[in-house]
Design a protein that fits this description.
The complex is a heterodimer of chains A (492) and B (162). Helices cover 74% and strands 1% of the residues of chain A. Chain A is mainly α. The radius of gyration of chain A is 22 Å and the shape is globular. In chain A, 60% of the residues are buried. Chain B has two domains: 75 residues; 63 residues, no CATH class. Chain B starts with 16 loop residues before the first helix and ends in a 6-residue tail after the last helix. By secondary structure, chain B is mainly alpha-helical. Classes of the chains: A mainly alpha (492), B mainly alpha (162). Chains A and B meet through helix 2, helix 8, helix 17, helix 18 and helix 19 of A and helix 1, helix 2, helix 4, helix 5 and helix 6 of B.
Chain lengths: 492, 162
């Protein structure tokens, strides 16, 4: 019970509070904050260092939702899906309630993630290791099929945006052959386009430019009188929260996939399974807010599973955590749980505490945050532009990135004006490289024989399940779906 | 693509929407050519195979958008110039053009003036131009905002600003 030590409690609390604000500011990533903290905590006791970093991690993943809801700028990649329905809620004047609900649900998701870590760590990690490159490809295709849910008025426009995102994600040096792709012979493009730059441009700047059309419109007064949601409201969403938390835990446990992909898949799950949402998805449905918020916080517990049991990072932050453990003389992996089981349970306890602090700090200070969206557009728009510049420059200290961000913002403005959604672009940027790499690794493992590759998809049990799921999701988005449903109903 | 579910079959075509769809088709074609130039059709695991697939999807989606636009087109035939004027009025209003020029000016001035002076001038001019508030309040807001950015980014997180 070392985690109940007053000084460690204080460190976890301070880390969570700092994490919420770091996560809320675009450009300040949780990975960056934890990396900086490592340099501070070099000489600290390992428990002190872990307590602070766990707090920052949990707070940061949650904090990203604040600016996603209020300004349509996801503070962190894990909050991209939160913006889809969170921002429309703020536009309706329900920012306070939206943040309140997202806080309680995030904490619930966090607890489910911790429970999964405590109960199923070894089993989940072992299962995640069975994923072959072709399975990652299928998983990425599943994620990309979310385009159907994010297309808005036209599926074709959504598909165009998703494919454009994939192309954007492939710009730069090919990771397998080091050949330049879409670089036009320039060295500046060899490093590729960081997806956070695209995210800030397409979400932040384009939204600010669209707002110029309503510059004289009086801002909607945000209702912050009832921040704490009633039990009946929460109880209504518990089943969805549990389902999407499980998705979060599972995706979080897969090496290389984190809260961002978990949140997107959870959003898609909600859109497919919730028959009567509080409002249509994309226009301020609470279900569209709850699903990604449960999943991204549950993914934290999931990401710890392969890190502590196998020494494989579940996402970028856990990769930094592994570095921190090495610095403190520990070796994450199967032996960590045998040699230092107290460290495992210390981390579990710490995550529980961080989630409790998340509830406390998450439900306070909302009024100040909500005031941000009540500012006149003439103040808000320039503020978004400056924040976008700082956030973009902070990534690689490059002004070229700032110009790219502006370019994406202007392009995003035209896309939005003509009914193309920008959500699928970000989806493509994130999943494109994973798809490309997984596809080529899978095809190389089949000695470049496309026939064997296709056969593997249906002969391997895990791949078969995923292939069937992909086909099911594809048919679900076509006009064939009602036809199949009619046949199924007639038979039953 | 044509078989996919759509939700926009009953609405009217926006000003310049068809023109934009043609532009996107041209852009998609350009991307497809660039993808082909990476490695051609050399093998199924070549670096250009996957980009070519994605670019082909862009072309197909653009064609589908154009086909749909054909169905949505208003009955009145309209000249190219008139369509261009309609589009300009709808998506390129004066406030957008002027503000984009202010943003571009700001980005270009960041390097010679450095971040804080350039941002201060940008915030001040923007807030006054967009009628967010008066000169004095703009001055106060710009100072507080840049002060907060300095404390959070430079002091706490040691982020190098331009």
């Amino acid at each position: 019970m070392a985690w109940l030590d007053p000084s460690l409690l204080l460190l976890t609390a301070a880390g969570t509070l700092a994490g919420i604000y770091v996560g809320a500011i675009p450009g300040l990533s949780v990975t960056m904050a934890v990396s900086i903290l490592i340099s501070f905590t070099f000489s600290w006791d390992v428990n002190d260092a872990l307590a602070l970093m766990v707090g920052v991690y949990c707070g940061g993943v949650y904090g990203g939702s604040r600016t996603a809801i209020l300004l349509n700028i996801p503070g962190a990649p894990a909050a991209i899906a939160t913006a889809f329905d969170g921002f429309p809620l703020a536009q309706r004047g329900e920012a306070g309630r939206a943040i309140g609900v997202s806080t309680v649900i995030s904490v619930m998701g966090g607890f489910i993630g911790v429970a999964a870590l405590a109960l199923a760590a070894p089993a989940v990690a072992e299962f995640a290791l069975k994923f072959a490159p072709r399975d990652y490809l299928l998983l990425a295709i599943m994620g990309l099929l979310l385009v159907g849910s994010l297309s808005g008025e036209s599926m074709a426009k959504g598909v165009f945006a998703g494919a454009f995102g994939v192309i954007l994600g492939l710009v730069g040096m090919d990771p397998l052959t080091a050949e330049g792709r879409f670089t036009f012979g320039t060295v500046a493009l060899l490093g590729g386009v960081h997806f956070v730059i695209a995210m800030i441009g397409f979400f932040g700047v384009s939204e600010a430019l669209v707002q110029l059309h309503q510059i004289g419109v009086k801002p909607i007064k945000q209702d912050v009188s009832r921040i704490l949601p009633s039990w009946s409201v929460i109880a209504k969403y518990i089943p969805l929260s549990i389902r999407t938390s499980i998705i979060g835990v599972f995706i979080g446990a897969l090496p290389g996939t984190g809260g961002d992909i978990a949140a997107l898949l959870a959003y898609d799950h909600a859109k497919r399974t919730v028959k009567n949402p509080s409002r249509p998805f994309g226009t301020g449905a609470y279900e569209g807010l709850i699903a990604p918020e449960s999943a991204n916080n549950a993914a934290i517990g999931g990401a710890y599973v392969p890190m502590l049991t196998l020494g494989i990072p579940g996402d970028a932050v856990t990769a930094v955590f592994i570095g921190a453990l090495f610095i403190h003389g520990l070796k994450p992996g199967p032996m960590l749980m045998i040699e230092t089981p107290h460290l495992f349970w210390f981390t579990v306890g710490n995550l529980v505490l961080a989630n409790i602090f998340l509830l406390i700090f998450g439900l306070t200070g909302i009024r100040i945050f909500a005031k941000m969206v009540e500012l006149p557009k003439g103040i808000l728009v320039p503020a978004i532009i400056v924040l976008s510049v700082v956030g973009t420059y902070a990534i690689k200290n490059s002004l070229m990135d700032v110009y790219w961000m502006l370019g994406f913002g202007i392009f995003g403005y035209f896309l939005k004006m003509y009914g193309y959604q920008v959500g699928p672009i970000i989806l493509g940027v994130i999943l494109g490289p994973l798809m490309d790499e997984s596809y080529r690794q899978a095809i190389i493992s089949c000695r470049n024989d496309f026939g064997i590759f296709m056969l593997d998809l249906v002969t391997n049990p895990l791949s078969l399940v995923l292939t069937v799921a992909v086909i099911f999701m594809m048919i679900n988005q076509t006009r064939l779906w009602p036809f199949f449903l009619r046949i199924f109903r007639r038979r039953t | 693509m044509g078989g996919l579910q759509t939700m926009d079959e009953d609405r009217k075509l926006r000003a310049g929407e068809d023109l934009f769809a043609w532009l996107m088709l041209g852009f998609s074609g350009f991307v497809l050519i660039q993808a082909y130039l990476i490695s051609g059709f050399s093998s199924v695991d070549a670096p250009g195979t996957f980009p070519m697939g994605a670019a082909a999807v862009m072309v197909a989606a653009s064609l589908s958008v154009l086909l749909k636009n054909r169905r949505l087109k208003a009955g009145q035939p309209i000249t190219f110039k008139a369509e261009l004027n309609r589009a300009a009025a709808a998506v390129l209003p004066r406030v957008f053009m002027v503000y984009c020029a202010i943003i571009v000016g700001y980005m270009l001035l960041i390097k010679p003036l450095h971040f804080f002076p350039a941002s201060f001038a940008f915030l001040l001019i923007s807030m006054v131009y967009l009628k967010g508030t008066g000169w004095f309040r703009s001055l106060m807001i710009a100072t507080v905002m840049l002060g907060s950015i300095y404390i959070v980014f430079q002091y706490f997180f040691r982020v190098v600003l331009p």
